Amino acid sequence: MKILKQAEKKTYQRDAALTHTVMDIIENVQTNGDKALIEYAAKFDHMDIDTVRISPEQVKAAYEQVDEETIETIRFAAGQIRFFAEKQRECLKDLNIPSRVEGVEIGHRMIPVDRCGCYVPAGRHPLPSSALMGIVTAKAAGVQEVCACSPAYAGYGTIHPAVLVAMDIAGADEIYCMGGAQAVAAFAYGTQSIKKVDLIVGPGNKFVTEAKRQVLGDVGIDSLAGPSEVLIVADHTADPEFLAIDLLAQAEHDPNSKAILVCTDRATIDETMKEMDRLITTLNTEDVCRQSWKDNGAIYLADSMQEAIDLANEIAPEHLEIETDNEREVAQQMRHYGSLFVGHYAPVAFGDFVSGPNHTLPTMGTARYSNGVWVGTFIKTPFHQFVNKQGCLNLAQPTMNFANIEGLPAHRDSVRLRVERLK
């Protein structure tokens, strides 16, 4: 393995200043509620508002600001995401079975959370796709109250109309114009006008991520996401133009995005770099791409496909593309990734928007033990046991033995007294 280009800097760093800033914001929202949200809207978004709640009239007005093709594109994507999420939901079954012990039934139920908050970021570009990924999936899971929020978008004084339309098409029950750590705090603890949620999902900047970290425990979260990533495994069969544009597509997300190429063929790598130099000048995101690639891009020349596979599994990227000969065989050996894109005609862009699987995915190597947002994110699986008189007698002795071993006499007697009643 040869490293032809290495990342020049770390893409994510948590520091004390960030921690304390977010802590202060959360405390302010907990103490002052809506007043704090309105003050933060003025400070960060330059908005003079009386409430962060989006009205039905504002949603209706958003449709008038968006062209019909955009609306149909959003509906198409929502349908794709809903189809996949509903098929996932069908895999999750309640369980109720007889135990091996007579008189005892055991099992679990699939119960959606009552209320969730879906955070939709608003950085350089509007992100209606992120609205769909959270809200549609929550609704498919059976969540009854789905709240959505997004910061005001520059030039509109409120949420970008395409995002508002996406929130409505996805089925959001409540929509709020708020962002940052203050939005996470409002969802986690509630305010005078916002009822607290049980679960918060959705990506965001470092302030949102740190806020999710700090409220975890008081409310559930999906994950602590870092900057977006792609790793492409390629060989001599890959098209250098495709490889180049896919690396650039990742780089244009953000200056902290990470794009990695692992290839077994030096000539393909060299041609890819030539294509990258050509294609980057055609993009209006050129500056972001150049910064991202300079700071975080990496290229590995693997001695074999197995070495490339092993490296991909070690890195555990958010997005993993396979552009090789025998791509299905290679894909079968991949074990750690957020979402997998197999074949020369499977760019990550499909998964970002319309193929169906969720695009809110694990980053920073956490794909080694976690997965992206899916219907199961919104569903808890509590267990149960039904025990009749015979079951009580059959379980009694080993239970009382365990209670004695662990020094818990009330546990023992909660069984003993019932057994005595049955004699």
Structural class: alpha/beta
Arithmetic mean pLDDT:
96
Portion in helices: 40-55%
Binned strand content: 15-25%
Specify the overall morphology: globular
The Rg value, from CA coordinates, equals: 25 Å
Looking across the biggest beta sheet, what order are the strands in?
1-12-11-10-13-14
Describe the oligomeric state of these chains in a short phrase.
single chain
Word description of this protein:
The chain is α/β, with parallel strands linked by helices and about 425 residues long. The protein is about 45% helix and about 15% strand. It contains 16 helices and 16 strands. It has helices spanning about 15-30, 35-45, 55-65, 70-90, 130-140, 160-170, 180-190, 205-215, 240-250, 265-280, 285-295, 305-315, 325-330, 350-355, 390-405, 410-420, and strands at about 1-5, 95-100, 105-110, 110, 115-120, 145-150, 175, 200, 220, 230-235, 260-265, 300, 320-325, 340, 380, 385. The strands form 4 sheets. It has a 6-stranded mixed beta sheet with strand order 1-12-11-10-13-14, with helices on both faces. A 5-stranded parallel beta sheet has the order 7-6-5-8-9, with helices on both faces. α1 (about 15-30) packs across α8 and α4 (about 70-90) runs parallel beside α5. It starts with a strand and ends with a helix. The mean pLDDT is about 95.
